Amino acid sequence: MSSVLQLLLEGERLDTLQMARILGMTEAEVDAELARLEAEEILLGWRPILNPDTAQENFVRAVIEVKISPERDGGFDRLATRIGRFDAVESCYLMSGAYDLLIFAVGRDLRDVASFVSERLASVEGVLSTATHFMLRAYKEQGHMLTATQDVSDKPSVSP
User: Fold this and answer.
1) What is the rounded CA–CA span in Å between residue 66 and residue 69?
2) What single-letter DSSP state applies at residue 124?
3) What CATH architecture is 52-136?
């Protein structure tokens, strides 16, 4: 794995000069590596991690389990790609187990997500069933704790 990519994945917010100093490279080498990673579509974008409790963003996130019927000559890929193109879909994964696709969806409110599932997703030919789970609270996002750090012990307190 590229050392530049590894540094980015570790979650550091660094400019190219800082990255160059850490990695023992020139700034031009870091810029060239970033350009290569983007050109080869290894690095697809930059996404900040927001704490929904403090960002005061009003939206609802849901996890949707989807069972689909694979297409002849296309398998799951064509249908998963079609579903992934919906604006409401943040992420779409092919899974093993009780369902085929795991979708992370977002909407303005519960009704917005429910409408997406019932009117758009469930009506796609090849979708056999859906199970929607609304996210109530996030505690950890992409390796970052979102709740206040507390001294939490696994053992209950014992009184003498």
Assistant:
1) 10
2) S
3) 2-Layer Sandwich (3.30)
